[in-house]
Amino acid sequence: MQRLAHELRTLRRAAGSPSYRTMAEAGGFSATTLSQAAAGVRLPSLAVVQGYARACGADPREWEPCWRAAEAEAAKTPVREAGQKRAPYRGLARFEPGDHELFFGRDRAVEELKRLVRDHRFTVVSGASGSGKSSLLRAGLIPYLREEMGKRGRPAILRVLTPGPRPATTYGHLLAPADGRPESWVVVDQFEEVFTLCQDREERSRFIDQLLAAREPESRRRVLVVVRADFYARCAEHRGMADALPDAGLLVGPMTADELREAVVGPARAVGLLVERELTARIVEEVLDQPGGLPTLSHALLETWRRRKGRMLTLGAYEAAGGVRGAVAASAEEVYGQLSATQARTARHLLLRLIEPGQGTPDTRRPLPRDELDEWADPGVPSVTEQLARARLLTVDEEGVQLAHEALITCWPRLHGWIEEDRERLRQRRSLAEAARTWTEHDRDPGALYRGTRLTRAEELFPDCERNGALNAAERGFLLAALEGREAEHRAAARTARRSRILITALSAVLAVALIAGVAAWQ
Fold this sequence. Notes:
Layout: H1 2-14, H2 20-27, H3 31-37, H4 46-55, H5 64-75, H6 107-119, E1 122-127, H7 133-152, E2 156-161, H8 167-175, E3 183-188, H9 193-196, H10 201-212, E4 221-228, H11 239-244, E5 249-252, H12 257-270, E6 274-275, H13 277-287, H14 294-306, E7 312-313, H15 315-321, H16 323-337, H17 341-353, E8 355-356, E9 364-365, E10 368-369, H18 370-374, H19 381-390, E11 394-396, E12 400-403, H20 407-411, H21 413-421, H22 423-441, H23 452-461, H24 473-522
Parallel strand pairs: 1-4, 1-5, 2-3, 3-4, 6-7
Antiparallel strand pairs: 8-9, 10-12, 11-12
Helix pairs in contact: 2-3, 2-4, 6-7, 8-10, 12-13, 14-15, 14-16, 15-16, 17-19, 22-24
């Protein structure tokens, strides 16, 4: 599925990257359907693939063999037993709006969040990493917002976004006030990215100003911001944000014992399964009062479900999966052990590129945009990405790829060791990526290249940059240009030195002759 999706995205780029709305008119399917076909989450139908090809100006008939091959390969991979319902647990992935019927244990928090968004135009939700903020937002609140929009009987817009490195530039046109626009809700998930990924203070401030405009009396917009608790204090760096924080905030804490039982038993019950009392008791004992334990709990339950006996999820299956503390590492090591030596190197480069090293704060995940992923010169990246995504360690969509959850950073010792070993290199590569982007945006201006000690340090950290698998095409081109620039400067300096020596020799000869002539004239 990932290979087919990659081929569809390549076809779209070759056609000039038309918008999905434009493609929908020519392809005969909705923009959402076409977008999902290129996301690689599930196998699209043959008709959709041919419609996608037609929208990109290709011959639909030529894509039938590609689809048949993908269908045959997907058929060889047992996803679930015949007649079996989908997994009741999400593993490391967050709950989405479509998982609403499987979302249990957060009724109290959902009701409080509903009250806040009804009563306030600007709301902030915070909590520890792994406390279930994104799931609360997507599977708890968003279905309610959609229901409310339907009840009002008038146009309304719901936007869910993550900031990324340039939030004001990326979303400014959507957040700018305009006459005639319908009422809207803007939900900003992973707001901490304005501090971890956005390095431009002015860009950050503009984005926050755009969000805070919702507090104006004439605004037709409501804003909900979701931020990790360890970045909550940094929100106060912006004066307007500091003023807004005390008015409408929700702190997502650990689940109570009853809520944990409901989170364990509820999803299983929804798909007709049972959970041993001993298993529920063990989980409550291990996870109670652990603010960031929900992703590892969900993953352990998913692995327990895979090892179930009939309709019963048992304590024995849970222990075989490694429990809350060991299931993530066990799953990660299992898929890593299936990779070849070359694929393992690629996996290390890929996973480290998905990490944003903390500076006085815990390490966070970093989304890898689709264009950056596609320009990576390593041909093994698509295959490795597919294997890690199939194991639910990564999430892949049309926008790009990212870690399924930050819990993977702390729960997988191998990845944690890689990060500690390469921490300085990760920071330098982040700076290198920004410098390469600036250089490209300024038409490869030589003045934007590394020089002096910065170039020397980059050369030490990324040796043999022309074949270094940790670098993408833009970073590799930037370093090669910088090295070529340094060589050109050295050659120019050598030529200048030679000319200077020749000139000095000639001047010395002239002076000697003049001196001799002067002495002779004096005599």
